[in-house]
Structure formats: structure tokens, C-alpha cells
Write a structure and sequence with these properties.
The structure is a homodimer. By secondary structure, chain A is α+β, with helices and mostly antiparallel strands. Chain A contains two helices and eleven strands. Chains A, B: InterPro entries: Nudix_hydrolase, NUDIX_hydrolase-like_dom_sf, NUDIX_hydrolase_dom, Nudix_N.
Chain lengths: 184, 184
């Protein structure tokens, strides 16, 4: 951030009075520009024993498999965001959605929220951000071709929970490991 | 938003190519400025049968009682944010925190996340944003002087769940009711 979105003058990174964090503050109108984490909402969509994955048509991780998910927009609920992303990326209609997995990713300022949901019919297809959409049995999950750690962790947790048919809401932290590339 | 925070030139509200929502886009450098919901994180702090409330020293709802909570910052987890706010507003140390209530407030672009937590000692006090901090028995909760609907709903749910000693994670939507003032 270099300029004030309110008046167009330059900003400096300073600690506002009464605060303890550096913020971008306008040198002219004194507006403080806060920056906050974003929510990524998506669905773990199932059809009988199978789960739905999308092959990404965009970076990052072009060509890798993911659960349909994306940034929550202003004016919607997390559930609406998850269903919208599922429609946009997999053209999939779902029902019985329930909050399932939350991930904190503080190194990239994101909070993931995945809902479990049941596919309503088999009339799904790749949306603009997907190369392909497929249903996978547990034995056929492309574990080495998953786009993000959040996807693998959610799938593993789901297959575990499915054995007990009990799906409590869980929260996990995923943090940057020095020496590795930043993970998502 | 009137100016591009990247180059300082003016922005217009337009729908970017391949998008379906109006965004602020720079007329000069074409940067798209996305705006997304923010997370408010806080704690329902208990001590034996009592719950901890803070009397707000700031607007909105100056003088009304609230659970300690505030905007999650970049670089932290939701749990860290909830504990930080509990320290800042109530100077309270807690332990055994667990995710409890989530609220979607799409009319004000917020998602609330409350953790249940146990107070570690009675050495708490009003932080800068609080006029007072007190422990309340259920019978003494100032129901008509609570700052926000999220606070009352979380307290009611807690007193209900406490009877079964079972505290599942729950998500609720709180939406704007036309004719009323916007609620939080």
C-alpha cells in the first residue's frame, strides 16, 4: 500500500496513537488503513462413498486437485460463499451442508471454512476456474496431486470420521515451516 | 474508496472481465481492489458458574455489556485473536479455550467467532476499551443492557448447553431486519 484510498495522498507505515501495531496511515488526512485476514469458504461434496474434487485451471497450483473453495464476498454468509464457490468451480448443486473443518493460516492471513455437503444430482461440470471435476473413491484420491494442505487434511479427517459416522466441527492451525516453501 | 492504494490515481466501480461483481478498479494501473468480510474473534470466559462481561468504553454501544472480542489481525490465528482481545479488554488470562459459536452478519460484512474459555485467576480488570469488567451469575446477566445480539445469543446458548454439559460448535446467521436499526 502506497497511497490513501480515501484522498489519494501518500501513506506511511506507523503505529497509530493508542495502538500497538504498525498500520498504513495517510500523511494528509490521517485515515488509518487496517488490513485483516480473509475467509476462504468451500465444500467437501460427497455422493454416496465418493468425494468431489476439481482440477485447478488457475494459479497457484494449476493442474492440481482441490475442494471447491474461494474467497468469501461482502454481503454473504460463509455458507452462501461455500455454496457459490461450489457452483462456480464445479457447477454442482448440493444440500444438507454443515460446517466441518476450519483452518487458520496465519502466514498468509487466511481462515479456511469447509462445509460437508451432499451432491444433489450428477449434473456437475468444470466451471471456468476448473479443468476437470470428478468423483473419487477413497482409494483413488490423487494424494500426491492435491493443491493445498487444507485439502489433504480435510479429506483425511473426513475418511477417518466416516468410520464412526460422527463429524464434529474441528479447527486446526497450518503454519509456515521455515526451510519449506510457504504452504497453504 | 476513491483512489488506488497502489498508484494513487482514481478508481471506478466496475465489473472486471470474467467477474460478476462490481469492484473498485484503478483507471490508470487496472488494479482490482477486492473488499472482503472481517472476522471478529472473542471469548466466552467462565469462572465456576459465572461468566465474564465487559462494559464498553467505546462506541458503538458505549456503556453496554459485551463479551471481550474484536477484529482479528493479520498474522494471527482466530484463537490467538480471541485470547488477545480478552487480554486487551478484560486483562484476563484464560485456558482450555475451544471454538463454540460462529455468527454470520452479512449486512455488516462480519463473521463472529467465539471461543469458550476458563478464567485462570481472578486478577482481571478493565482494559482501555472497557469501563468495567465483572463476573455475572446467570440470574444477574443484564439482558437489556447487552451491546450486540451476538452477545445475548451466545450467552443464551451457553446457559442452555450447560444443562447438558455438551457444547457443540454452532453457526447462526444474524441478518438485518428492515424497519429496525441495523443490528450487530
Amino acid at each position: 500500500m502506497k497511497f490513501c484510498s480515501h484522498c489519494g495522498n501518500s501513506v506511511s507505515a506507523r503505529i497509530p496513537q493508542g495502538d500497538d501495531r504498525q498500520r498504513y496511515i495517510c500523511d494528509h488526512c490521517d485515515t488509518v488503513h487496517y488490513q485483516n485476514p480473509r475467509i476462504v469458504a468451500g465444500c467437501l461434496v460427497t455422493w454416496e462413498k465418493q468425494v468431489l474434487l476439481c482440477k485447478r485451471a488457475i494459479e497457484p497450483r494449476h493442474g492440481f486437485w482441490t475442494l471447491p473453495a474461494g474467497y468469501m464476498e461482502n454481503g454473504e454468509t460463509t455458507e452462501q460463499a461455500a455454496l457459490r464457490e461450489t457452483w462456480e468451480e464445479a457447477r454442482a448443486r448440493v444440500h444438507q451442508q454443515q460446517l466441518y473443518m476450519l483452518f487458520n493460516l496465519p502466514h498468509i492471513n487466511q481462515v479456511y471454512m469447509f462445509f460437508r455437503a451432499q451432491l444433489s444430482d450428477l449434473d456437475f461440470s468444470a466451471g471456468e476456474e476448473s479443468l476437470d471435476v470428478q468423483l473419487f473413491d477413497e482409494a483413488d484420491i490423487p494424494w500426491n496431486e492435491l493443491a493445498f494442505p487444507t485439502v489433504g487434511k480435510t479429506l483425511r479427517r473426513y475418511f477417518d470420521d466416516r468410520q464412526q459416522e460422527h463429524y464434529p466441527v474441528r479447527m486446526e492451525d497450518i503454519t509456515y515451516q521455515p526451510g519449506n516453501r510457504p504452504i497453504r
